Amino acid sequence: MLRQLGLPAIAEVDRFFAFFTSGDQLRYASQQQRRAYVAGDSRRWGLLTAIELGRWVQLAPRQFVGQVLSSSQLGQCLIDELRYLGQERVDVLLLDNQHRILLRQPVFQGTLNQCPVHPREIFQLAVLHEAAGLIIAHNHPSGSVTPSTEDLAFVRRVVQCGELMGIPLLDAFVVGATTYFSWREQGVLPLQQ
């Protein structure tokens, strides 16, 4: 950061810690104390601003996209959002332990009747966002919500990966034009071994 601001690193670190010997001294420093540190070199304001932004980001509460209350509630939302897509698309919803949605993101876009999918990308996102569970959803542009044999095989792979990773697949959806298929509602999840 000091190099980016054009400040001599070693000398500036010594100066900074001469003025602010601890984090709380900087946090509660008055404007007069901050101006004394800056001493006419406006680049030092950039350093103080960067530190303040870092503290602000660290204290910011996590934002949630929504909350999953039931498969039927989520299924209706998915119909509204996926039914008119001309290609198959797989979305993942990452949830915390209270079923609040941390992230909803498309992970694959396919063709009219198939979507090459691998659990690797799904679980990479789940680990990155510290998800406690996940839901996958994809549309069938044909309008049919009957899961294909590929759908069944894919859901089985995601369940197995989730068991290994400790991030369970809570539900999976196939979305059509006016209805949906939920593995959880149909009693398919959890999978029987």
UniProtKB/TrEMBL annotation:
Residues 67-189 form the MPN domain. Keywords: Hydrolase, Metal-binding, Metalloprotease, Protease, Zinc. Pfam families: RadC. Gene3D superfamilies: Cytidine Deaminase, domain 2 (3.40.140.10). PANTHER family: DNA REPAIR PROTEIN RADC, UPF0758 PROTEIN YEES-RELATED. Belongs to the UPF0758 family. This is DNA repair protein. It comes from Levilactobacillus senmaizukei DSM 21775 = NBRC 103853. The lineage of its organism: Bacteria, Bacillati, Bacillota, Bacilli, Lactobacillales.
